[in-house]
Protein 1
Amino acid sequence: MTQSDQNSSNEQHLALKERKNESYKIFDDIATTYDPLNRFLSLGIDVRWRHRMRKELPQKPNLEILDLATGTADVPLILIKNSNISKIRGLDMSKNMIAIGDQKILKANLEEKITLGIGDGCALPEKDNTWDVTTVSFGIRNFPDYFKGLQEMFRVLKPGGQIMVMEFSLPTNFLIRAIYLFYFRKVLPFIGNIFSGHGDAYSYLNKTVEDFPYGEDFINKMKEAKFIETRAIPLTFGIATLYIGTKPQVVKP
Ligand SMILES: C[S@@+](CC[C@H](N)C(=O)[O-])C[C@H]1O[C@@H](n2cnc3c(N)ncnc32)[C@H](O)[C@@H]1O
């Protein structure tokens, strides 16, 4: 990479970081088209990924789960199919995404088990050591400080609790990566921006993917946040990755 490429990459990184402070406002704007566009642009694969998350839940009764950046509650509505779960709390900064999630929960008659509220993933309105599992799907890369998000998830987990982070990543196979990047850089933003009616929501969201750590880099960040037994499960050629870790029973200072 030349010095000028490096400078422009640094500038782009800073511009994206700045915008992440209020990225939830973009979701307020695109909330009504979010679900149908997601299904269409991912060809429904995103639903399969969330089911994979459900399969990786700990095998324990009465699980209480906190889902960050819950959006329109797609994750809670799939996880709740696991009969071990007693309740799920979903938090997000976008009131419009949550309003749609609330309607879906009401329609599914699940308001006793799933509740949603406003909450910042970098400053959780939750007590220490209270949740069995914390989840975040396609949300953490939108946080202004994703490492703070990891630390917050660690703080609110009970000792022995499990973190699950699902996020986009880049396929390792050269050919698949090239095809994927063409779709991701050209096709997806074009369709997304038109159908969401938002000038550049999908261009911005896609840039955040290529700017975000994945694979071993993300696992190292989880370890730095003190998680143990960390692992990464690549999904669909590595287009997305599910990261899992555990909060130790005894936390070293
Ligand atoms: C791509 S959506 C993912 C929604 C959902 N988890 C899913 O899998 O469909 C990202 C969500 O992150 C939320 N978000 C952005 N910044 C946030 C923050 N600091 N704290 C909590 N949620 C945030 C947005 O409002 C948006 O609903």
Note: The chain has a mean pLDDT of 91.
Protein 2
Amino acid sequence: MEIKVLFDSLALDKRFITGWGVSFLVDGRILFDTGENGNWLMENMMNLNVDIDEIKAVVISHDHFDHTGGLWELLKKKEGFVVYGCPDFSREFKVKVKRLKGNFKEIAKPREIAKDIFVTAQIPGEYAGKFMPEQALAIKTNNGISALTGCAHPGIIKILQEIKKILPKDNFYLVSGGFHLMEKERRVCELTVEGFKELGIKFAAPTHCTGKEAEEIFRKKYKENFIGVKVGQILKV
Ligand SMILES: [Zn+2]
Ligand SMILES: [Zn+2]
């Protein structure tokens, strides 16, 4: 399967708009997060020949603007769009989706939302002292499990352990997204990379709120299996 990077802070070339947040398109049919701005996301989609009508649903990892920001423009373009969120997303979020005629669906427990594409259901996390539930995406292919995360506020290792419970027989392949290590001490970053190795993750593609220092640690440890994420890139899983 292919994962297209639609939004992030770096790009393959100047045609693409960059900003804060992430957005990935899995196999042309499932969108994961929407970056911080709808017009920018649309522009990138156009340049990447993404057909909105082919997208079956959007999965929102958590209720932060850099992951939900592009959603509103998308809902204006496609009425009745299925939006998978966590039960504990804010009321404000759910009302806004409804107002824009989106079809909000809560993921109460881990679920295969499309063939070989799974959502973890909400994992409790915290951000700035506040409760912040978050869900992640798992993709099953012949190579193994690949995972996408938004900010990983519950902790990236915790998220990966939850994914392993859903697909206990499969090995990990690639993990990408925000790992939220940017305010963490170096030791915590190192332990996280060790955790990745213990979980048998073959390719690491950290981005967004992972932080430059943690990304460097991943790069050193993963060498040629480290992937720097950029808008316009296609991750083959
Ligand atoms: Zn974020
Ligand atoms: Zn966040």
Note: The first strand starts at residue 2 and ends at 7.
